Amino acid sequence: MFQNLIYVFHVVVCLIIIGLVLVQQGKGANIGASFGQGASGTVFGAAGKANFLARMTKWMVVLFFITSLVMMFNSGKITASKSVIDSLPVQQVPMIGGQTSTTSQPQ
After folding, report:
1. Following DSSP, what letter does each residue of 2-71 receive, concatenated?
2. Rounded to two decimals, what is the model's pTM?
């Protein structure tokens, strides 16, 4: 249950990061001010929106790394590796002189 909750939270954080990055203006977006994309009428003020979105992106990236580390540590506990050689069938093979030996048969 905990693992599924982490997976869902991780995907939600990923989608939020994608949305935040797409909403932010790039460094070369200053040309937009001449076409009506200026700071007039913004909710956050002239520079408040950029700072708010940058801080939100930073904290979402921190959450992304935390959930990634939690998923990594949880996946290491679940999987137990077993050797393929241990699962090979053992067969009795007669030897010269009447003795028998146990060997594994390749498939």
Report:
1. HHHHHHHHHHHHHHHHHHHHHHS--TTGGGGGGGT-SSTT-SS-TTHHHHHHHHHHHHHHHHHHHHHHHH
2. 0.54
